[in-house]
Amino acid sequence: MIYDIVFDPNPILHARALPIPGDQVKTRAIQKFIKDMVETMYVKDGVGLAAVQVGVGQQICTIIKTYNALNPREDLCLINPTWEKIDRHQEWDEEGCLSVPRMYGKIKRYTKIRVKALSSKGEKINFVAEDFFARIIQHECDHLQGHLYIENAKDLHKAVTKKPDSQYKRYD
User: Fold this and answer.
1) Which residues pair with 82 in a beta bridge?
2) The whole model's pTM is what?
3) Would you call the peptide bond into 9 cis, given omega within 30 degrees of 0 as the criterion?
4) Which domains, and CATH codes, for the chain?
């Protein structure tokens, strides 16, 4: 099932998503939702997707396998993710978002973070993410905390090119 994307200023995008109890991760409903989120992420041409972006206030996000530094052969699902900086180094880069169509802006993000979450199998995972992979995770985690990148972006601008949106980096 392909979900519709929720657009700003929908209130769900500005509310903290609820954690999923570990014993519910393996349920048929959650597993189907994860599969549908991944499918939606690809169809909508995002590199990541948070559950709130499809109108579900639960702490689930997905990242396409192309940017999954843990296993580039599998899409990554993070349930109840948290992260902490490992290094103080931050970099500016331009971001976009499926929930804020055709808007782009520069965001400063940590380049190396430690991530803790549950996998789609309900197993605890703990790993280090760096560079673009870390940026995507921070962007998706912001969604799950009720924040959009445009709240802190500099140089916000609408895409005014005839190039398709796929020419721009979109995080979800």
Assistant:
1) 116
2) 0.91
3) yes
4) 11-167 (3.90.45.10)
> 93, 106 in Cβ contact below 8 A?
yes
CB 146 within 8 A of CB 16: yes
Contact 79/60 with Cβ under 8 angstroms? Answer: yes
Contact yes or no for 82/117 (Cβ under 8 A): yes
> Burial, 69: exposed, middle or buried (Cβ in 10 Å; 0-12, 13-18, 19+)?
middle
Residue 7: CB atoms within 10 Å: 13
Active site residue 74: no
Residue of 91, 94, 130, 140 marked active site? 140
Give tens-digit pLDDT for 70-81: 899 999 999 999
User: Each residue of 46-94: pLDDT tens digit?
Assistant: 999 999 999 999 999 999 999 999 899 999 999 999 999 999 999 999 9
Residue 62 · residue 38 · CB < 8 Å: yes
Is residue 28 within 8 Å of 170, Cβ to Cβ? no
Helices within 10-156 (DSSP H only): 28-43, 131-144
